[in-house]
Amino acid sequence: MSRTIHIAPDTSAAEMLREAGILPESGVPSHMAVFVEQAEAILEKLRDVIAVGEVEEHRGPEFQQLLIDIAARIMSHPIVAGNRYLKRFAEGVSLAQARHECRQFSIFALQFDVAQAKLVSNAPTYDAYVERLHVLLNEKGIPYKDGFEGELTGHWRMGSVHFSWMLNMGKGLGLEFEDLGKIWLALPGTKAFVDATFNNYASIDPNIAEGSAFAIENWAANYLWKPWIAGMEKLNATLPKPVDLGYLKYHNLEEEHHSQATLDELLESFTEPWFDADRFLEGAEAMLTDGVQAYYVSQLASLPEKDETWPAKAFEPRAFDPEAIPRIAAEKVVA
User: Fold this and answer.
1) 39 vs 218, 224, 240, 279, 327, CA distance in Å?
2) Other Cβ atoms within 10 Å of 180 Cβ, number
3) CB-based contact 285:77 (threshold 8 Å)
4) For site-directed labelling of 313, which of 44, 46, 89, 215 has its Cα 20 to 30 A away?
């Protein structure tokens, strides 16, 4: 049985995660940095909504516990916390290796729009329908008026389609339209990634769908775009004509914004009668294990020009058992 801990309502996110044994005594690992900062922001919002009576006080510790479980099971998932493939990618890659990554990731990127369309169709409310539709329309070429969410400009152009930016990057790597985005070009891990997205991100169970979306956005914000960009910038330094990295850099900024939005949405969903924390976490872990992890295992196994500097395995084992994470003694923190 897990031990219990006492967490006061005003405890910071970092202190809470250290008490739970997830963070070290000093410092914050790079894969947790964005999450810890954004978890602190959502805890402040939690205190505000409790203070004005929008959320019952006794539910505060439940949400704190959910953040601890997210840190243990999602942010500390092996493919997020210990992605050896991306860590090595950041150190520098050959043109063939960069081409390999662009080709296979482009398949997930284009098929993701299909999953987003399913999510639009399965929207439980009109507001959710509009929000999801905006995400899809933005992917397909209609910019937001300001930033990465909200109202759209209403003006479509091919140059704003996200896949156009992927094509620009591919062109710099010697890839043509026929080489990108096609599901029949998918390696087994890429196909598993796409299937996991359809099964989880586009699930009709709102808990599974929201957990999967949370996993995708927070994995990407914390440990996808930055190492990919780092490796590509090192490659560009060796090329006579640099590869266009606009696709990567835009999504790096977008995902950091979206990851905060997933926490805001989580707090809203947490108060709904349909919300089930266990199902939410189940959807997140399925997305990471069956999708993201399977993808990188496949990428490493099929990587061209692989030498001894590349790891034997795509990820490190879990640093701890999430089931052993302590539980908050709720009765001790309710006034």
Assistant:
1) 11, 19, 43, 20, 18
2) 23
3) yes
4) 215
